[in-house]
Design goal:
Keywords: Signal. It comes from Pedobacter polaris. With about 230 residues, the chain is α+β, with helices and mostly antiparallel strands. It is built from 5 helices and 14 strands. The protein has one domain. Strands 8, 9, 10, 11, 12, 13 and 14 form a 7-stranded antiparallel beta sheet that branches. A 5-stranded antiparallel beta sheet has the order 1-2-3-6-7, with no helix packed on it. It starts with a helix and ends with a strand.
């Protein structure tokens, strides 16, 4: 009887732990939902000056969060694409009517040199952005990806992957190029302290970027990352 009781207790603990890690949710906000949370007054108070390209909300065991990806939308080019010189992202936690900013992203395209444009635009690559619990600890691990167009499109543009793990930002910065000496990837050393599941997921995401021709990583890149190489050129 005692053994049965212990087994039942263990089963209860396991089920409870599983339930806790399955409570995360995330979704893209509709325009009306975006306007409701990110009202004009809220945007003014929090210095959100650019148009919101996309907004998300997610909930995990620590609370409910709202994310706004904003782009400067400075002009329209000949291909009728929006040109952004600057991007900003904001993450807010909402708890019992109190909203606090948790983190912010600011970046911009490389400025022109003597009137010559090195990059055409910078924008969020939302097909790679995600807000999921990657390691099963009940906390969402946001991944935000953005990049630029160079003079030859993606071939010489930049890409940046930002992972937020328990409030800590971990970055992978990449310069595309069809020439080996000009191609460079920088990986924060803190990446290697992330749980293995998150590291694997990010490497798979990078492989997807290569498949979609949005990034050019060295063929032996995955092996080099496993060896904790923080800057890769060849």
């Amino acid at each position: 009887m005692k053994k049965i009781y212990v087994l039942l207790l263990l089963s209860f603990v396991i089920l409870k732990a599983t339930a806790q890690t399955d409570t995360t949710t995330s979704k893209i906000l509709s325009k009306s939902e975006t306007d409701e949370f990110f009202s004009d007054a809220f945007r003014k108070k929090n210095l959100i000056k650019f148009p919101i390209f996309r907004a998300y909300t997610y909930t995990d065991k620590s609370g409910t969060y709202y994310v706004a990806l904003t782009e400067s939308a400075d002009s329209i080019n000949q291909a009728k694409d929006t040109v952004n010189n600057t991007i900003k992202a904001f993450n807010f936690k909402s708890d019992k009517g109190i909203v606090l900013k948790k983190w912010e992203i600011n970046d911009f395209k490389t400025p022109s040199l003597k009137g010559v444009e090195k990059e055409g635009s910078i924008w969020f690559w939302t097909k790679y952005c995600e807000f999921n619990d990657l390691d099963g600890d009940g906390l969402v691990d946001p991944i935000v990806v953005y990049g630029t167009f160079g003079t030859n499109g993606y071939d010489d543009g930049r890409a940046k992957i930002l992972i937020y793990y328990k409030g800590q930002k971990v970055a992978i910065r990449h310069q595309n190029s069809v020439l080996d000496p000009a191609r460079k990837t920088q990986v924060d050393l803190t990446f290697y302290a992330l749980p293995a599941k998150i590291q694997t997921h990010v490497k798979e995401l990078m492989e997807k970027m290569v498949e979609k021709k949005h990034a050019i990583f060295p063929s032996a890149y995955a092996d080099k990352m496993d060896k904790k190489v923080t800057q890769i050129g060849n």
